Amino acid sequence: MRGSSFVRFLVAGAANSGITYGLFVILSWWMPPSVAYSLVFLFGIALSYVLNAVFVFRTRASIRTAVRFPGVYLVQYLTGLALLTLLVRLGVAGWAAMPLTMCVTVPLTFVLSRRVLRGAARRVESAPAPDRLSV
């Protein structure tokens, strides 16, 4: 059921946020916050890929989807930045614009993640079997 995968997506996102924040705090004890943030951001994308593939959409991880998956977060970031900028220019306070932006970017990220992870699996499953040579 689609609803249950969205709930799993929200749970995975909350777990990813908690884990990456904790890792950020720990790393920032030993390195500049900007370096810790950058490392944790990359780790968060990798963790999100694993959680989404295994827990949310229950598909097999592959090199192909792993390479495509960071594009989901690029689209999410650019969409969120554009929407946040637009809302603030329209007079919405930043503190209120962020949750409104998330109302768009969270479902967008779910749809794009599903497309990257499940779409590739469907293409592989529906591909015709290669011809066998008879001997």
UniProtKB/TrEMBL annotation:
InterPro entries per record: GtrA_CellWall_Glycosyl, GtrA_DPMS_TM
Q: How does it sit in the membrane?
A: Multi-pass membrane protein
What would be one Pfam family of this protein? GtrA_DPMS_TM
Transmembrane segments annotated in the record for this chain: 7-30, 36-57, 69-88, 94-113
- Highest taxon of the source? Bacteria
Q: Where is the GtrA/DPMS transmembrane domain?
A: 8-116
Which controlled-vocabulary keywords does the entry list? Membrane, Transmembrane, Transmembrane helix
Location(s) in or outside the cell: Membrane
Report whether Transmembrane shows up as a keyword of the record: yes
Q: What's the family?
A: Belongs to the GtrA family.
The name this protein goes by in its record: GtrA family protein
Q: What is the lineage of its organism?
A: Bacteria, Bacillati, Actinomycetota, Actinomycetes, Streptosporangiales
